[in-house]
Amino acid sequence: MKFEDKHTFDKPAATVIKMFSDRVYFERKYKDLGFTDIEVLEHEKTDSKFRIKVRYVAKNDVALPEFAKKFIPAKMVVVQQDAWDLKRMTGRLEVEIRGTPVKVACDMTLKDEGKGSANLLKRTISCPIPLVGSKLEQLTADDIRAKVANDIATTRRILADY
Length: 162
What we know:
alpha+beta; Alpha-D-Glucose-1,6-Bisphosphate, Chain A, domain 4; 7-stranded antiparallel sheet; 4 helices; 7 strands; DUF2505; DUF2505 domain-containing protein
C-alpha cells in the first residue's frame, strides 16, 4: 500500500534540514510525542550525510479488530531509521514494528516552497501475509494518519528553536 503526505514549514529548507539532521531533535520529538523507552541505537553525521536509528515504545491508537490483535500489539516496540542526503535534501525512513510482519518505508524530499518549505513523504507499507496482509497494511496506514497531526505539530514547535 502506498500513500503520500506533505508537511509544510514556515522556515526555509536549509533550516529544516538542520533540524532533521540533529540527534537532539529526534530525542526531543519522541519524548514530546509520549513515546517511552527511547534509545538511540546508531547515529552518524558527516558534511553530506546523516543517519539515526532509534528504538522506542509507542501506543497503537487504532481500534484493532480481533484478527489483527494476533499481529499488532497495543504497545509497539518500534525501530526507526532516518537517513538524509544533506546536500540533495532527500531522505528515507524505515520503520520496523518489532514482532509484527508489517514494514513501513518512506522516501522524503525537502524543498523550499513559498515563504517556507515542504517535505513530501511517499510512504510504502507492506505485509507479506496472505489474505490478511492488505488489512494489516490498512490498519497501519490508519495508525500513521491518526498520529500525523500531532507529529507535525510537535515538529513545528521544535523547529521554532532552530
